[in-house]
């Protein structure tokens, strides 16, 4: 059981690294990259900070999210503990933003499932995957 959380952390980090890389280049999957570019046009229209007057350019938005996922995914998988925790927090914010965006666009719930599962795993790692177990006051 001791290896479960490190394995989940590494696999989840590699997953984010791959999904981020797909957003950065069409060399991995040209069709998926084109699909993401068109989706990020819609995503930019419902960007949460739009209410405050900031609407990102869709291409830059795609690149920024891609780089965040690549860097945070690599740090989550292979970084030191402090950077793992910071990357977990950053990726949690990204997943909350993804779920918000999909819900505002009224996408089917199946479209929200990957982001929701990733968010759940990130929160699980944050709560239970720290390595040391806190003692309760009854022990």
Q: Calculate Rg over CA atoms.
A: 16 Å
Give the rounded overall mean pLDDT.
Answer: 91
Beta fraction? under 5%
Query: What is the string of SSEs from the N terminus onward?
Result: HHHHH
Describe the main β-sheet briefly.
none
Overall strand count: 0
The end-to-end distance, rounded to whole angstroms, is: 21 Å
The DSSP helix count reads: 5
Low-confidence stretches: none
Structural class: mainly alpha
Shape: globular
The percentage helix is over 70%
What does this structure look like?
The chain is mainly α and 139 residues long. The chain is 73% helix and 0% strand. It starts with a helix and ends in an 11-residue tail after the last helix. The mean pLDDT is 91.
Set out the fold topology.
Elements: H1 4-24, H2 30-45, H3 58-78, H4 81-104, H5 109-128
Helix pairs in contact: 1-3, 1-5, 2-3, 3-4, 4-5
What labels would you give this structure?
single chain; 139 residues; mainly alpha
Task: Give a quick rundown of the structure.
73% of the residues lie in helices and 0% in strands.
């Amino acid at each position: 059981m001791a290896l479960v959380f490190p394995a989940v952390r590494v696999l989840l980090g590699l997953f984010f690294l791959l999904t981020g890389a797909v957003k950065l280049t069409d060399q991995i999957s040209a069709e998926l990259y084109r699909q993401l570019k068109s989706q990020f046009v819609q995503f930019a229209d419902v960007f949460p900070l739009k209410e405050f007057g900031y609407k990102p350019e869709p291409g830059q938005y795609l690149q920024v999210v891609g780089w965040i996922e690549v860097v945070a995914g690599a740090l989550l998988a292979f970084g030191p503990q402090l950077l793992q925790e910071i990357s977990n927090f950053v990726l949690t914010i990204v997943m909350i933003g993804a779920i918000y965006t999909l819900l505002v666009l009224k996408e089917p719930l199946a479209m929200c499932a990957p982001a929701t599962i990733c968010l759940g795993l990130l929160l699980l790692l944050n709560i239970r995957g720290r390595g040391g177990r806190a003692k309760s006051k009854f022990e």
